[in-house]
């Protein structure tokens, strides 16, 4: 074959190869672009769905975080299995001074409240340690689910903090030896965290029924529950009786 013909043939083959490579590259880029568009569409749909889900229920993410936190704490202690804790973040430990439960608290600690099971847990994520655990009475705390991971402060915990329980004074008003102590024991069975302020004889010894007196007004619900326990109603301090240094007074009659 003449050299000129060979040269023309080689040139044609080279051009054909270049064209094929070009078309292959163009096809590959087209397929790649379609894949990118498809993946972007899938992620777009996913995040749009998540966005709509969070708009309908803004507590979903908070509940997920609470579950994750509970899983970590469950490795350190046994937790209630039938409820998700309400969680709050300690952001200003100075405001919690003077409260025994938070004596060792630090900013960024987590407070887990199991309202149904009546357990409060102070947990420190930075060291993965439980700082404090305390059983509490339902009405002594109030944490709204919307305040989960509240970054402002622990203002969602009311003045009646979880570490506080009412102090009860027991007056024996029937003249029967040991009656006040027996009443204290009965109350402790139902409310083991209630503190006893004093056991003593009442000024009068002729009471015919049990009186429950709300002394400070700080524990109205507790006073009502105690009154129900003894099938009576909350009453005023009888005239002539000594006002005790307690939140609630129980005078035991015959």
Describe this structure in words.
There is one protein chain. The protein is an alpha/beta fold and 254 residues long. It has three domains: 1-56; 59-147, no CATH class; 167-252, Alpha-Beta Plaits (2-Layer Sandwich), CATH 3.30.70.2390. 36% of the residues lie in helices and 18% in strands. It is built from four helices and nine strands. The chain has helices at residues 3-56, 59-74, 179-190, 220-229, and strands at 86-89, 110-114, 119-124, 129-135, 167-172, 195-201, 211-214, 234-235, 248-252. The chain has a five-stranded mixed sheet with strand order 6-5-9-7-8. Strands 1-2-3-4 form a four-stranded antiparallel sheet, with helices on one face. The longest helix has 54 residues, at 3-56. The protein is elongated. Mean pLDDT is 75; it is low at 42-48 and 138-163.
What keyword list fits this structure?
five-stranded mixed beta sheet; Alpha-Beta Plaits; alpha/beta; 18% strand; 9 strands; 254 residues; four-stranded antiparallel beta sheet; elongated; 3 domains
Taken from the alpha-carbon principal axes, the silhouette is: elongated
Physical arrangement of strands within the biggest beta sheet: 6-5-9-7-8
In percent, how much strand structure appears in the residues?
15-25%
The whole-number mean of residue pLDDT values reads 75
Tell me the domain tally: 3
Q: Which structural class do you get from the secondary structure elements?
A: alpha/beta
Percentage of helical residues?
25-40%
Tally the helices. 4
Radius of gyration: 35 Å
Q: How far from one another are the termini?
A: 133 Å
How would a crystallographer describe the biggest sheet?
Answer: 5 strands, mixed
Given as residue ranges, the uncertain stretches (5+ residues, pLDDT < 50) are 42-48, 138-163
SSE order: HHEEEEEHEEHEE
Q: How many strands in all?
A: 9
């Amino acid at each position: 074959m003449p050299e000129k013909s060979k040269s023309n043939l080689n040139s044609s083959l080279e051009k054909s190869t270049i064209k094929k490579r070009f078309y292959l590259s163009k096809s590959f880029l087209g397929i790649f672009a379609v894949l990118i568009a498809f993946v972007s569409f899938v992620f777009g749909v996913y995040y749009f769905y998540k966005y709509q889900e969070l708009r309908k229920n803004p507590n979903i993410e908070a509940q997920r975080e609470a579950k994750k936190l509970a899983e970590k704490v469950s490795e350190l202690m046994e937790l209630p299995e039938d409820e998700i804790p309400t969680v709050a973040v300690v952001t200003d430990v100075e405001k919690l001074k003077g409260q025994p439960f938070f004596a060792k608290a630090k900013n960024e600690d987590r407070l887990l409240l199991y309202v149904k099971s009546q357990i409060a847990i102070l947990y420190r994520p930075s060291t993965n340690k439980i700082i404090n655990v305390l059983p509490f009475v339902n009405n002594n705390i109030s944490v709204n689910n919307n305040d989960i991971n509240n970054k402002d402060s622990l203002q969602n915990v009311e003045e009646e903090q979880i570490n506080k329980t009412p102090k009860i004074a027991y007056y024996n008003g029937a003249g029967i030896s040991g009656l006040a102590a027996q009443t204290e024991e009965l109350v402790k069975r139902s409310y083991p965290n209630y503190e006893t302020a004093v056991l003593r004889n009442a000024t009068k010894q002729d009471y015919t029924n049990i009186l429950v007196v709300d002394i400070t007004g700080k524990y109205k619900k507790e006073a009502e529950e105690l009154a129900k326990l003894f099938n009576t109603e909350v009453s005023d301090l009888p005239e002539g009786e000594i006002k005790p240094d307690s939140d609630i007074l129980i005078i035991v009659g015959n």
